[in-house]
Amino acid sequence: MLTALKEKWNNLLPVLFVAAFALSRIPGLLPQNFSAAYAFAFCAGVYFSRKISWWLPVLVLAATDIGLNFYYQFKYPEDNVWSASNLANLAFNYAAYAVLIFLGRRFKPQSSFFSLLGGGILGAIFFYFITNTASWFFNPFQNPEYTKTFPSWLLALTKGINGWPTTLEFFRNTLLSGGIFTALFAGAAKLTEPAESPVEKNAGVHEEETGATETPEEANV
User: Fold this and answer.
1) Which of 39, 91, 98, 167 fits 181 for a cystine, CB–CB 3.0-4.6 Å?
2) Cα atoms in the Cβ-side hemisphere of radius 13 Å centred on 8
């Protein structure tokens, strides 16, 4: 019974994560850079199986990115969101997502809530540095502030371009959303995770004891 519940929950978890992430990408629903994407990629690495943790987040991210590109191209026709430089810049987002998934794979679902929260925040920091560096390097919208110099790179990480909120404000939103959505995803997983029965706990203890016991022959090796 307990095993069946665990299996059912494990099958439902990716669906819930995908639904929450897809809803969060509705344009205008959340502030800029306040996104569930960072937590989604990180928690996919933690909770999904090895294969699903890689292809499912990438597929969902790609599908929503394509939809958003069509939306923004229609809303802002003067900006070519399909330009080679913008697509190259977008590709670095996926490199950052891969880092987040890889980071999530270093954790286990049984990791403490605060360890998972710290991992989600760390992933958001990685995402910020990777994607802002890519925006500075590819400069898809030809912003004059982004020259290929070290001071300009620092500018991209702190102030950004004129006419927009500073990138430090975006960084704040990235950290907050990474922490909040990781807490929500990990908290939901912790609260709904079926507890082990006494039989399962005792079985685990017996297995450890059996595995740790050496025969006289092994002790003499």
Assistant:
1) 39
2) 7
